[in-house]
């Protein structure tokens, strides 16, 4: 069996393009940044870019294509964003209409692709520091919640911040603040620690996205701004067409995670 | 005499609006972020925002107005960007045509104002750490140089990175790397230390902008990406109209410098 963990991003993208890989990308090309995708038409591009600029903790852009270009040249020089993600979702007027493995048929001349960093990047150094990550231990998706924290509005785009949650010991929580502060380009430090009610989460056992995880005796929930925020916000504005990656099926970039660390 | 150093940003902006202050803003509203200005028309706004996004060390955006809005709402809720800067420069087709204290007559419905962070923000913590800053000691402008480092292109915008230089002892240089790394949102860590030729600077005594400063025996030049870069790059593309602040006459924002620190 091929070892996807040590394979290069370029080789993996070739396999994805050839539809030899059509599922989740977690664990592939270890050490390389994976990114969320949101494609919008030109009419919304400035406002959405401005929204990301104003909400950097929720919307850490790792690349944005030029209008009409399907190559995220900064993080994947040979890549084609229309074919190099295992699975895409098509939304029309904010409604999910289709899941496909190739979006060549949907691509338009005035589209812009936004590649948004994800928490995979800071989970690796957390694990390396010996901090257990519950949803990895329990082999499920990270729990995500809508909060009462409003994002900064930009044009038609507005909505609440979505957060991801990782329970940990108080000692690990302090260390996790230090480690993730080194990555301001991919969510950065937590936005909240402790009482979920303070950020408008009424039931920690019922996440809005992803799966619930065990919070053990003596553990504290630690919340980070989540890359689902911009997708959720864009969807709410009901653009005529919007294309995203399917959950877990990310873009594997040439960017090394360590490049995103400021210290 | 009024003490501008301890006056609030809002009060200072009122005085600037009333033309009671028409000169440089250095040292005013200590602890609050001052910003460079670049105003462009909508046709260039997406590309310029993308240019800043792709070159965050040179172009640290602290706010961008919505199309047609003259209020940088994130950093100056009551501000009017058309009147709240002491002096503006007007460029037509890339040529400097006028210097004015008010741009109401130049403002158009499709203009976008880009507020770009400046090195004042990280110079305060350097001084507080006991690191002398030569151009402040010598009461002149920081020396700035064009380099052979190409910025990441975005649409019509491309050009070399401009850097500012501060000479210091080797010990201070190490500490300065640590301190400025805490401010990834305002230029961050240096981009080069030592031999100027390596980044294409042929004569350190002849800066392209600002003033030359003394480099003492045993000191090493330390280079940071400079906020002049985006203005220089935008100018090169010769937009029909572009408005900037006049040198040293900055926008005084409500944002505390410490807000821009990640640690």
TrEMBL record, chains A, B:
Signal peptide: none
Keyword field contains Lyase: yes
GO MF terms held by the record: lyase activity
Gene3D superfamilies: PSTPO5379-like, PSTPO5379-like domain
Record key words, sorted: Lyase
Organism superkingdom: Bacteria
Record's protein name: Putative hydro-lyase FG382_01630
Organism per entry: Psychrobacillus lasiicapitis
């Amino acid at each position: 069996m091929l070892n996807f963990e040590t394979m290069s991003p370029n080789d993996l993208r070739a396999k994805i393009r050839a539809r030899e890989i059509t599922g989740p990308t977690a664990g592939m090309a270890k050490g390389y940044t994976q990114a969320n995708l949101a494609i919008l038409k030109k009419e919304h591009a400035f406002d959405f870019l401005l929204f990301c600029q104003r909400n950097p903790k929720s919307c850490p852009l790792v690349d944005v294509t030029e209008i009409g270009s399907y190559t995220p040249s900064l993080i994947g020089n040979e890549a084609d964003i229309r074919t190099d993600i295992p699975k895409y979702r098509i939304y029309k007027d904010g409604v999910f209409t289709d899941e496909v493995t190739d979006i060549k048929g949907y691509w338009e001349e005035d589209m812009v692709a936004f590649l948004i960093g994800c928490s995979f990047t800071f989970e690796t150094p957390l694990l390396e520091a010996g901090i257990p990550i519950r949803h990895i231990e329990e082999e499920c998706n990270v729990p995500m919640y809508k909060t009462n924290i409003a994002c900064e509005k930009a044009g038609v785009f507005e909505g609440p911040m979505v957060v991801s949650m990782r329970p940990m010991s108080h000692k690990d929580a302090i260390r996790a603040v230090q480690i993730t502060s080194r990555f301001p380009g991919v969510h950065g430090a937590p936005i909240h620690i402790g009482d979920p009610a303070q950020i408008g989460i009424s039931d920690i056992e019922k996440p809005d996205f992803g799966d619930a995880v065990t919070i053990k005796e003596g553990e504290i929930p630690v919340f980070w701004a989540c890359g689902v925020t911009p997708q959720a916000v864009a969807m709410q504005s009901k653009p005529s067409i919007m294309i995203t990656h399917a959950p877990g099926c990310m873009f594997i970039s040439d960017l090394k995670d360590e490049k995103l660390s400021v210290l």
